[in-house]
Structures are given as C-alpha cells and as structure tokens.
Amino acid sequence: MIRISLGAWNDVREAATRIRYEVFVEEQRVPLAMELDEFDPQCVHALARDGDAAAVGTGRLLPDGHIGRMAVLKAWRGQGVGGEILERLVVAARERGDLEVVLSAQTHALEFYRRHGFVAEGEIYLDAEIPHQMMRRKL
User: Fold this and answer.
1) N or C: which end of the chain has fewer CB within 10 A?
2) Where are the extended beta strands (E) located within the chain?
3) 55-61 sheet: strands from edge to edge
4) How far is the C-alpha of 79 from the C-alpha of 127, rounded, in Å?
C-alpha cells in the first residue's frame, strides 16, 4: 500500500533528494547542479511511501501551478505510484484555488500525463539534453 503525504521542503528534503538523485542524476545523467534549485523551499512536495514507510516517489508543486520533479524509484514504476503523486498535487493545486496546472513532460511520459487529463502544447524542446513538451490541465 502506498501513502502520499504533502509537506514543506524541510520535511521531505532528505527522502526527496535521494529519490531525485537516483532517478535524474544517476539514471538520466542530469547534472546535479540542474536538479537541485532555489525553488524547492517555495514548493508543496508530495512524498510516496510504501507499507514499510520507505520513500519511493516524489513530486512538487510550485506557487505558479507548475508541477515538476516527478520521480519514482525504478522498482516501483508501473504500479500507479506516479499517478497517485500527480493526482495528490493536482488536488493540492485545486484546493488552493489554482485554475490550471502545467508541467514540462519528458516525451517518453506524454501518454502517462494524457491519461491524467493533461494536454500537450507547443513544440518539443530539450531540457538537460532530454526531449520535453509542455502540458496543461484545467482544474
């Protein structure tokens, strides 16, 4: 069973950083300097924990309605963890009065986001040498 909690950066920093490092820096070869940024303290962070309370996934919601840093450990992918994180962040945005959420999706994940109501817009572009496309969901 997966539990999703929301918290401030100080509450999730250690677990979220470990997950993001493993997924983005080690697996995808994103430079560490690009992965950690000055926006984390301003965000609402979601953290997924398994039945043993081990952190297995994370994501964040910026003050402007941008969802980002969605990451799930490899052993937990394909089990609905990312979807639960995403939907919890969408609910948080709706509850605070946001009218929409946006995200920059890696192109391999476009279908995942479409299944959750996001619509692609604009051209595909590179971020950290990885193809991305902007997506939007009205709330």
Assistant:
1) N
2) 3-7, 44-49, 55-61, 66-72, 100-106, 119-127, 130-138
3) 3-7, 44-49, 55-61, 66-72, 100-106, 130-138, 119-127
4) 27
CA atoms within 13 A on the CB side of 21: 6
Query: What string of pLDDT tens digits covers the 139 residues of the chain?
Result: 899 999 999 999 999 999 999 999 999 999 888 888 999 999 999 999 999 999 999 999 999 999 999 999 999 999 999 999 999 999 999 999 999 999 999 999 999 999 999 999 999 999 999 999 999 999 9
CATH number at residue 22: 3.40.630.30
Domain membership of residue 61 (yes or no) is yes
Does this model's pTM top 0.90? yes
CA atoms within 13 A on the CB side of 105: 25
